[in-house]
Amino acid sequence: MKHVIIIGAGAAGIMAALAAAGQGASVTLLEKNNIVGKKMGITGKGRCNLTNACAMDEFVAHTPGNGKFLYSAYGQFSNENLLDLLHQWGLETKVERGGRVFPQSDSAIEVRKLLYDRLCRVGVHIRLNEAATAVQRWGDTFAVRTQAGQYEGDACIITTGGMSYPVTGSSGDGYGFAKSLGHAVTELKPSLIPFTTKETWPHALSGLSLRNVEASLWKRGKMLASQFGEMLFTHFGVSGPIILMLSAAAAHKKQCQYPMQLRINLKPALSKETLDQRVQRDFQKYIRKEAENAMKDLLPQRLIPIVLEQAGIDGRCQVNQISREQRQDLVDSLQALTLTITGTRPIEEAIVTAGGVSVREINPKTMESKLTPRLYFAGEVMDIDAYTGGYNLQAAFSTGYVAGMAAAKEE
């Protein structure tokens, strides 16, 4: 019987343990936290966005960080395979907007308890509150040291996650283990993370959410990426779904350097001409009002002074005093409200880490190291990352499954 040691009991580590044990291997699962799947508990705002219901090709398209590397893993363990297992184990699920899949109960705790129960049922030796401190290979044996002692096994799977949300256990330990075993680690960057801005006015709008807007990132007059949907102003800058998606795009642009420019189209459904006509109608309706009161049908009240200021219009100016040129500037401001992006929040606040153990040194069919036989990697510790929507968790489950199956296979 092969003995497999797995470091990290997140989504990838749990699935690797279940797969390996299911093949008859003796499995030891080491976890520094007092529970398994701690980071899973914060996905989907605590509801656990398990996966997405889209086709697997879409998973690759939604993975800017080496998505093509995952083709084989997804072929071996797809979203349908994952859901079949979860349903078989008694978890009811539902599909929401954008194909996001959640437990019917909206409870990440239920998912964690279910997976912990499955680990116990298949005989995985779970070691909680036991962080790995070093990984070594002695001939055909792997030795993993912890604060409590040492474990030896025939194979080792590193599933320690990235650098984001260290409170959940993802503090970058796996990168050190990989380097000590000869692996290269690519540059680590925050992804799916809010932006900070040079301008201070977002602070005055803190908490204001905008829906159905388009935000685009620009550098030296060239558009790098754009997203349509919902965003949020914060005390430090901007956040929300489309901002997080833009941060992922920025993390994968070569020579990505801040500052950048963010342009917000507040009325993307309207052409410039149609929007101008809409503004004229509102101005006619409120002909005797001041400008800041004449736009209440068009924008949230707190946003109006900001848009007017960017257009160079005094909010106390009477509507009938606004020239055609000023009105054109206002339309431009409505469709390109501009902010200077100075950077992102700290990597510890990122949802995922861009960068990690180089996938060039990992066999995509087995997740085995090309440098060190019987050493495997799975999940976010590798240089793979995706957009929000269940794609990152599925990547963790799929690569964990593949690594676990391969590690358990007898030579």
From TrEMBL:
Is this entry keyworded Glycosyltransferase? no
What residues does the RsdA/BaiN/AoA(So)-like insert domain cover? 189-352
Matching entries from Pfam families are given as: HI0933_like (PF03486), HI0933_like_1st (PF22780)
Query: Which cofactors?
Result: FAD
> What are the entry keywords?
FAD, Flavoprotein, Signal
Q: What is this protein called?
A: NAD(P)/FAD-dependent oxidoreductase
Which superkingdom is the protein from? Answer: Bacteria
* Domain (RsdA/BaiN/AoA(So)-like Rossmann fold-like) ranges: 3-405
Signal sequence annotation:
1-19
